[in-house]
Amino acid sequence: MTTGNVTKIIFGFFIPLLMTNLLQQVYSFSDTAIVGKGLGDNALAAVGNMASLTFLIIGFSMGMANGFAVMIAQHYGAKNIPALKKAVAASVKLSGIIAALLTVFSVVFLRRIMVAMQTSDVILEDSLRYGYIIFGGLTATIAYNMCSCILRALGDSRTPFNAIIVSTIINIVLDCFCIFVLHTGVEGPAAATIAAQIVSTAVCVSRIRKIDFLSLSCDDFAWDKDMYGQLLKNGLPMAFMNSITAIGCIVLQYFVNGLGVDYTSAYSACSRYINMFMLPGATAGHTMSAYSSQNFGAARYDRIRDGVKVCLRTVTAAYLVLGSVMVFLPSVLARVMLSGENTIALASQYLPISGAMLFAVDFLFVFRSCVQGMGQPMIPMISGILEMVLRVAVVILFINVIGFRATALAEVCAWTGALIMNMTAYEVLIRRYINNSKVQNTVCTCR
């Protein structure tokens, strides 16, 4: 990614990655739609009620993996293969430790957290059955995230795409089989999700083993204090950023649950749509993470700026289409996943507000990932704190004034505040690095 046409390179990486993320959302969406239509709105509420907690636990591990991938991409961009191999080996070891700790924590405290979130007795047991299976299989999810992050750090977005094609088909088939043939409850889709993750991990591992310069030896796994320190320095802030953001979402879920089961169902459906429609922004963010990390390692700061411009134009085009659908066709979207007229009406209140400001979260992904790629993970973490504060403050202030719409307003304010912080940080950093590079080149020329 450090040489060649910027637009061509970014789109060559972006498109397979977009398809990967889209397919991930398709099987997440399929879970929701199949559960909603096959088991009813209460079962949908039970599954959706787990979303914020799942984001907290899995988001932490994903943040760590993304932080590790920044270091891997920087070493790859600098062509430092020995350091690259040590970074991969250390990342694998750390991911294994994280998987064990998070699995124990989430399974042991799941019921207490669900009760603390004001989960209705009507959906509590279904939420627990779904959650115990999802968190019990956390190792498979973390393994896939780490493997896909390693591949993306090396510029390979096609293998994760191939893995998701297979796992999506498996997930949808197993969902339908479990619910409509075996007549299971929510535990069927949960088990199908874990099975799909195992398959996708196997595909990525198979590809990694074929990369010659990633043939790891025992020496690569040896303890290296500096390497582990660097990985944790990058990974922990990004993990905490995701977790802090998730805490804000959990608080939001707490207030939604307090309104009643219909509100929980509507919020679950709306959250699925937001996750799907922000995919171009999230994909552009992952693209910029790998692209900016490699070019930062190669000291090609001018290419980083060019890459940001390409990604911003891309997500703007996507926003004009997807944001318009959310604004003008909210009831059509709601009816795809929801059955009750009240839940459909509630979702139709939420979607236009978030759709109008969808560009804010799209731009946020681009700038935040670029700042991370330039070796500044603390700034995104601080912006995550700002997101949480804004999300919680807005819902507390307005939930009793404008009702369910306050949840959409809280999301919009959180996105906007974090965007301003990361966009400002990017401008300051990129100007500093480019100016310093010009000074160094001038000094070398004079010598």
Task: Please provide a brief summary of the model.
This protein is mostly helical and 447 residues long. It has helices spanning 6-39, 41-49, 51-77, 81-116, 121-136, 138-153, 158-181, 187-208, 225-259, 261-277, 279-297, 301-328, 330-337, 341-356, 358-373, 378-402, 405-446.
Structure description:
There is one protein chain. This protein has one domain (6-446). It has 17 helices and no strands. 87% of the residues lie in helices and 0% in strands. By secondary structure, it is mainly alpha-helical. The radius of gyration is 22 Å and the shape is globular. The relative contact order is 0.13. Helix 4 (81-116) packs antiparallel against helix 6. It has helices at 6-39, 41-49, 51-77, 81-116, 121-136, 138-153, 158-181, 187-208, 225-259, 261-277, 279-297, 301-328, 330-337, 341-356, 358-373, 378-402, 405-446.
Q: How much is the average pLDDT?
A: 83
How far apart, in Å, are the first and last alpha carbons?
A: 30 Å
Low-confidence sequence ranges: none
What class, by secondary structure content?
mainly alpha
Q: How do the helices and strands line up, and which of them pair or pack?
A:
Layout: H1 6-39, H2 41-49, H3 51-77, H4 81-116, H5 121-136, H6 138-153, H7 158-181, H8 187-208, H9 225-259, H10 261-277, H11 279-297, H12 301-328, H13 330-337, H14 341-356, H15 358-373, H16 378-402, H17 405-446
Helix pairs in contact: 1-2, 1-7, 1-10, 1-11, 2-5, 2-10, 3-4, 3-6, 3-9, 3-11, 4-5, 4-6, 4-9, 5-8, 6-8, 7-8, 9-10, 9-16, 10-14, 11-12, 11-15, 12-14, 12-15, 12-17, 13-14, 14-17, 15-17, 16-17
